[in-house]
Give the backbone structure.
Amino acid sequence: MERDKYASKRALRVTNVALIILLIIVLLFWWRGSSNFQFKGVNPGQISIRQQDGKIQYQFLDGEWQDITSVASLKGEKGADGKDGQDGKNGVDGKNGVNGLNGSNGTNGVNGIDGKNGLNGAQGIQGQKGDRGDQGLKGEQGERGLQGAEGVGIPQTLSLNNGILSLSHNGGSVTLPQVNLG
């Protein structure tokens, strides 16, 4: 199938519509600019054009929007696939790089000398006294002690006289409170 002279029918339609609109605008401005010409008809400022919901529409003054055509009708059918292009020439291979030589292994280093022992640190401060420990187990019974010396004592006698309780041999006295029981 032979290709059209133009890239597509759509491009041709769009170009034609754009030229018609441009021609109308130029003519309207020319007629308006003529001093002897009185404009009768539509002023270009009274017309609005838009593309909405896949349609091209116009509006006169503040009236309703009117459909002119659909955007889909401006689109042509898909054209035939083009011929495959010629293969390009193969490029020249680049040069291979040269491998470097392997280096030799290094020798192990000498072991270092041991360091001197560090100095002892100063004694730290004394810690706090710890909690009291649990009571230990009961110890074994000790040996019986020696008999003690006989005690020296004076037999005492208590006496009560007029509310005073007295201990004999100057052992002291206590005055009892008086209570009336009767």
Summary: The chain has one helix and six strands.
